[in-house]
Amino acid sequence: MENLTRELWLVVGVAYAMVLGGAVGYEREMKDRPAGFRTHMLVAGAAALLVELGELLLFDTHYRSQQGITIDPLRLVESVVSGVAFIGAGTIFATRGGETVAGITTAASLLMVSIVGVAVGFGYYFLALAITLLTLLVLTVLNFVEHKPHKNKEKRADT
């Protein structure tokens, strides 16, 4: 019964990470970016699952030897970052002339939600929520600030 309880909490943690990742993904989806709502949810959930599985294995007697097992949390984080790097690279596109590159912000948001998932996996729920809110702030408010001067320059040129 104790193992089932741990597994149920693991599912709750993964769901929480997916909700947080989905919030960032929804913002990307609304801007019609290559990786959106579902992708961000899955990345955050997978990161949380990987970390939480590592912790769950520590308590599983099936995987213990007489010396016990230890877990290196940084190796779990490295695995998440490696996987997300592959996905993030797929979201970055260059135009034919090579003058512009698109998708870097989306790749960065995927990295952020993966780390949000890692934070959830380690049990830092408030930190994960705060980082999600900061990420949304960067993607929405700073996007508005970044593009506002360009619009003013265009209006001056037209008038």
- Alpha-beta content class: mainly alpha
- Percent in strands: under 5%
Instruction: Output mean pLDDT.
Output: 83
Which runs of at least 5 residues are low in confidence (pLDDT < 50)? none
The percent of residues in helical segments reads over 70%
Adjacency order of strands in the biggest sheet:
1-2
* Number of domain modules: 1
Please describe the biggest sheet, giving its number of strands, its sense, and whether it closes into a barrel.
2 strands, antiparallel
User: What's the number of helices?
Assistant: 5
The Cα radius of gyration reads: 19 Å
What is the number of beta strands?
2
Order of helices and strands: HHHEEHH
Instruction: Give the termini separation.
Output: 73 Å
Could you say which overall geometry the principal axes of the C-alpha atoms support? elongated
Write out key terms for the chains shown:
single chain; about 160 residues; mainly alpha; two-stranded antiparallel sheet; about 75% helix; elongated
Structure commentary:
The chain has 159 residues and is an all-alpha fold. It has one domain. Helices cover 77% and strands 3% of the residues. The chain has a two-stranded antiparallel sheet with strand order 1-2. Residues 16-147 form the MgtC/SapB/SrpB/YhiD N-terminal domain. The chain crosses the membrane at residues 6-27, 39-59, 101-120, 126-145. Keywords: Cell inner membrane, Cell membrane, Membrane, Transmembrane, Transmembrane helix. Pfam families: MgtC (PF02308).
